[in-house]
Design a protein that fits this description.
Length: about 325
């Protein structure tokens, strides 16, 4: 464990499976969680905690990797060299986020190859949001503002997740997401200050991405099967609905600056609650997307499979180079 001060076992806990680990190991794990400290890869942890982390972190990594596709598609069509350079940097950042997260997941004993196989075989989840099309340049603005905006609201609390490598990866990811959100906002701001056609294009993109971005936070709390346990383990810090509300409250004033509206007639300030009310989301659509029947699920997975197959020669060349370098090192040591 990373913490040096003595820890008192916490009296109330539902965080370990019965029959796992020694009493001492279980007590230590529970006290780290109770004291809101970090679990590190070599520490003892219940297998359910490990499984939960591998599930969430790998889903997150897959989301970053699949999430490159809607935007990468616009790199060659960006309206200026400056926009092209910014978009390229952003897409590269997403690749980096995927790599940090796969690396962090590997510290739990699950290799990247295994996770990648799960993804390309269609056995793994990735965020629903990346199964929607991005038909116009304004979609780059809406994705940056809404999708990366939702990602920040969801991910900043993960910087305090109880598993050290995950929390540390999230710190850097969140810094980069913050740049991504601003670039999206700035694209929309420029379009909203442009011609009527540009304003309409921006509004249309926001109309299409608004509800899907709210669904990124996951199902309503009553249907969130993992939240209670993940919160007991200090992996998640807030519920899906709490974060969704926080996101809506953050967006409305920003939309006013942009001069953009949201396609929700029920969106209104509720004085009593001190929050914005908003309409029910289409959870049937969410279920369809999760079941693999969203507008772009098949296309996104096929693209990932193709990229993996196209990259086979790079993996083979890298492995051959590594073998050669290792053999030379042995020869050098023997000489
Ligand atoms: N898309 C796809 N699946 C989703 C989902 C979504 N938006 N929201 C929930 N689900 C799935 C869960 O994975 C879970 O499935 P499983 O049990 O088969 O694994 C099921 O629906 C029930 O949902 P829960 O609320 O019980 O699940 P969680 O407690 O894991 O909460 C989460 C879901 C809030 C997404 C949480 O996993 C989380 O915070 N993950 C880390 C952040 C993340 O993965 N973000 C994805 C977007 S990445 C991104 O945006 C990249 C950026 O560059 C824009």
């Amino acid at each position: 464990m990373t913490v040096s001060e003595p820890r008192t076992p916490h009296a109330v806990s539902a965080v370990t499976d019965a029959g796992e680990g020694t009493d001492e190991e279980r007590a230590l794990f529970e006290s780290v969680i109770a004291d809101d400290k970090r679990i590190e890869p070599r520490d003892w942890m219940p297998s359910a905690y490990r499984r939960t982390l591998v599930r969430q972190m790998s889903q997150h990594a897959h989301s970053e990797i699949i999430g490159m596709q809607p935007e990468a598609n616009w790199i060659t069509r960006a309206p200026s060299l400056k926009r092209k350079a910014i978009l390229m940097a952003k897409v590269q950042d997403e690749a980096g986020h995927g790599l940090y997260l796969y690396s962090a997941t590997e510290t739990l004993g699950t290799g990247r190859d295994v996770l990648n196989d799960q993804l390309i075989q269609g056995k793994a989840r990735y965020s629903s949001i990346f199964n929607y099309p991005a038909p116009t340049w304004a979609d780059m603005g809406a994705i940056g503002w809404l999708v990366d905006g939702a990602a920040i609201v969801n991910q900043v609390p993960l910087c305090r997740a109880s598993f050290g490598p995950y929390a540390r990866a999230m710190v850097r990811i969140c810094k980069e997401e913050s740049f991504h959100q601003r670039q999206g906002f700035e694209i929309l701001l420029e379009l909203m200050q442009g011609t009527l056609a540009q304003q309409e294009m921006a509004q249309d993109a926001v109309n299409r991405w608004f509800a899907p971005s709210l669904m990124m936070f996951g199902p309503p709390d009553a249907e969130s099967t993992n939240s209670a346990q993940s919160m007991a383990w200090n992996i998640k810090r807030f519920s899906n609905d709490e974060l969704r509300q926080r996101f809506v409250d953050m967006l409305v004033p920003q939309a006013e600056v942009l001069g953009i509206t949201f396609p929700d007639p029920e969106l209104a300030w509720n004085e009593e609650r001190g929050h914005y009310d908003f309409g029910e989301l289409d959870w049937d659509e969410f279920a369809e997307v999760l079941a693999g029947r969203g507008p772009c699920n098949a296309q996104r997975l096929q693209r990932r499979r193709d990229a993996h197959n196209d990259g086979a020669w790079v993996r083979e060349a890298a492995a051959a180079y590594a073998r050669k370098t290792a053999a030379r090192a042995v020869e050098g040591a023997a000489a």
